[in-house]
Amino acid sequence: MKYIQKVTMILITGLLLTLIIIPIQSAMAADPIRIFIDNKEVAAEVQPMIVNDRTMVPLRVISENLGMTVDWDGDTRSVLITSPGNFIPGEYIDNSLSDGANISIFIDGVYIESEVKPFIKNDRTMVPLRVISEGLGMEVNWDGKERLVSINSPIPVLPSRHENVPLPMPVPEPMPAPEPVKDLPEEISTDSQLLYSLASYKTNLKLKDGSVINSVDLLNRRPSDFSSEQLSVFRTYLSQLSKYEPLIRLPDGSMVNTADVTIMGEAYLTAEQLTRWIKKETPRLMDKAASNGREFQPIPDLADLYIKIGAEYGVRGDIAYCQAAKETGYWQFTGSVQPDQNNYCGLWATGNPLTGQESLNGADSRYLYFEAGRHGATFISPEAGVEAHIQHLFAYANRENLPAGKNLLDPRYALVKRGLAPTWLELNARWAVPGTTYGQSILADYWLNAAR
């Protein structure tokens, strides 16, 4: 009898251990939850987790990847989320809704209810993903099989023929009134959505016929206006553009639309910041040159010149400096223009060698010249090269005359349609062809790194 009892106890104990261990092993074996925002995976320092059937995620990672500003009110244990363009002073937020014990969430000053209360894990505020994302106007989907959360920006509804839908920002130049959009089908087609998605980028696009449009113009076009080949090119453009965020964070912490960053204006960064950035990049550039069997070209000290000369013309010299870094391959000159030409933006480098007889188009011959067999203009000094670059941007960005007392150093200044591109994204398909992401790359791949 005692033997039977002993065996029974062993079996019961084994069963209990099995019931305990299996869930633990299952939990340990489960793949981590992955988060995608607008089809781009987002990394989080603290792994998302499931609590009471709710996916809890680190708040700051999610909010900032959605282009939001996040603040913490320690007195009331409140998280304050602000969307771009909104400023909600603390005194206008009804913190009486916070009980002081639990963490409360406010989005643009509005209190957000949640069945699962936020909590702190590893110094990160964990919040229910669906509540936050939907509070920010996003579409949220959960794939339990793949353990994948996808968050997508809301798709704007196409206007009917009688609606006048305002754009987020005005078009820089007044455009002639488009013909009314014809009646649309009840359901938005994939190609219609393609045009509308491209329009949101407010960027220049090169068409197959050689003309250039700003993608905003696609708001008033239909897929039938374009050939199947052009629509295919548009899909390629959208794929390229989707690699870049539509918003950019300025050094003061504010978020702006990338398409609204102008060429004219004060520099955001100092010469010291630019110099520090290039010094940090130098070891990587030296290793790259060595691996490619090339001699490393010493990087000229140009940051002060770009900031100083840019300010004299009202051009953002810090971004112009980053454009020069892009154009010259961080001053390694791996293209046709050579270091001794002091030509930092490829002026007159058209792909064909010069004859030496090209017209200076009014530029002062004391500061530059053309040499047969070379590519691009040659400037007598770094100062002259930088100023010619700034003048070329000045020509694109506005219709004003050169500042008083300035000599013309840009040999292509007179060839630019003045005021054609007030913003960096409007250099796309103009300065660079097709240049679909030219301006985005200057800002995201270079300037943002310098700003860190």
Task: Describe the structure in your own words.
With 452 residues, the protein is of the alpha+beta class. It has three domains: 34-152, no CATH class; 190-241, no CATH class; 262-422, no CATH class. 31% of the residues lie in helices and 14% in strands. The longest helix is centred in the first third of the chain and has 28 residues, at 2-29. The radius of gyration is 28 Å and the shape is globular. It starts with a helix and ends with a helix. Residues 1-29, 87-92, 155-175 and 177-186 have low confidence and may be disordered.
Task: Put the structure in a nutshell.
The protein has 452 residues and is an alpha+beta fold.
Summarize the main sheet.
4 strands, mixed
Number of domains: 3
Alpha carbon gyration radius: 28 Å
Order of strands across the main sheet: 2-1-12-11
Q: Regions with pLDDT < 50 over 5+ consecutive residues?
A: 1-29, 87-92, 155-175, 177-186
How many β-strands, per DSSP?
Answer: 18
How many individual helices? Answer: 10
